[in-house]
Specification:
Largest sheet: 6 strands, mixed
Mean pLDDT: 75
Strand content: 25-35%
Strand order of the largest sheet: 9-10-16-15-12-13
Length: 385
């Protein structure tokens, strides 16, 4: 019979048996016979039987088979001698495919013996051998074998197999786990390297990590392994202290292991640089603040619920403080901005403000904002001219 990869129990696609002295098709029978029943044909030949089974192999195609056995439900055996129940030897062979035309005189081709067994059950006179499964070890081949069948307990192959875990899908180095053009920068000499692996069998997976010096292309440490994690979750590894040096660039790659088999390939290298220095303030911000202290810039900000435009006024020169009128009589307008939207809330009346007293100095008039008077406040200890 032909056996292919499958789950724990594979279904047969065809079975039959042939018996010396008969010329009928037994493929529709509910049992399979093998061996000598102890009776003879009219011509004196033994009524020896042989069974053939073909199995579907697709379910475990390409699987890594680690253990396999053929199990047959044995409900009848002619092994009682009157005082003992000796086991009866039987064999498993690889053959060609049987069909409804198979007969004792027209059997499939016999290729090679694959297994032997002497397990025997099913004789009511043998109390220690009740009906049950008899087995033959087929670890070296799960592609072909022979079996016997009962109506409610068909023969079944029991196969232990495994699929290799898949290559990782998300290599990362951190903290902070940020990459720039595909390269990572870590802020510690003991960064965490991680990758995410999927195992087709749902087994837990361990990541095996290689680390190389990116410049010299030499391995800096033996293969480092993460703890086992559920399939589909990151497998993190904290790099041991003393392996990496601050300021250097490294590359790493990861391969998964499910406790039985490794993935045979490696992904592309992922590069990371060790930089433990604290980041400095961006120079652009400091320059902008310095420039704003050199001139009185008016910077438009966002509008509020009253549809007002907000400005930031930055003092310039030696003046330490400027006081201005909060609401000039003429407000600036902008294209597309409505000064008084229909649904805008009413503005509360402004309190009356008393202009500051002119103490002998000419007022500074702002020509761009009517009715605004800017006066430098005298600095303490500096006499007024």
């Amino acid at each position: 019979m032909s056996v292919d990869p499958s789950t724990s129990a594979l279904s047969n696609v065809f079975d039959t048996y042939v018996q010396q002295g008969t010329t009928v098709d037994w493929s529709n029978d509910v049992e399979l016979d093998l061996g000598d029943p102890g009776t003879k044909n009219a011509d004196g030949t033994y009524r020896t039987a042989r069974s053939f089974v073909s199995w579907n192999t697709a379910p475990i195609s390409d699987a890594l088979v680690m253990d396999a056995k053929l199990s047959l439900w044995n409900f009848h055996s002619a092994n009682y001698t009157g005082s003992a129940c000796p086991n009866q030897p039987w064999e498993v062979w690889s053959t060609g495919a049987a069909s409804t035309s198979s007969r004792w005189t027209a059997q499939p081709s016999w290729t090679a013996e694959k297994a032997t067994s002497s397990e025997t059950r099913g004789n009511p006179s043998c109390a220690t051998q009740p009906d049950g499964w008899i087995n033959a070890n087929l670890t070296t081949t799960v592609q072909e074998w022979a079996s016997a069948k009962a109506a409610t307990n068909p023969p079944k192959p029991v196969v232990t197999y495994n699929y290799r875990p898949r290559t990782g899908t998300k290599q990362e180095a951190g903290p902070p786990y940020f990459s720039y053009s595909g390269a990572y920068v870590v802020n510690t000499t003991t960064p965490t390297l991680r990758d995410t692996f999927v195992d087709p069998n749902g087994d837990k997976v361990q990541g095996a990590h290689q680390i190389f010096d990116s410049v010299t292309d030499t391995q800096v440490e033996a293969v480092l392994r993460s703890a086992f994690v559920p399939s589909g979750q990151p497998a993190p590894l904290v790099t041991p202290a003393g392996v990496l040096v601050n300021g250097k660039t490294y590359k790493f790659r990861s391969s998964p292991y499910d406790g039985t088999h490794y993935n045979l390939g490696w992904p592309e290298w992922k590069t990371f640089t060790v930089d433990t220095a604290a980041p400095s303030a961006p120079t652009g911000i400091a320059t902008a603040l310095r420039d704003r202290r050199r001139a009185a810039d008016r910077v438009p900000l966002a509008g509020d619920a009253l549809d007002n435009l907000h400005f930031a006024i930055v003092a310039a020169g030696r003046s330490r403080f400027l006081r201005v009128l909060a609401h000039p009589t003429k407000q600036p307008t902008a294209s597309g901005i409505s000064r008084n939207p229909t649904n805008s809330p009413k503005r509360s009346p402004e309190p009356t403000r008393t202009p500051p007293v002119n103490r002998g100095r000419a007022p500074c008039r702002d020509s761009t904002w009517p009715n605004r008077t800017l006066r430098p406040t005298p600095r303490p200890g500096i006499p007024r001219g």
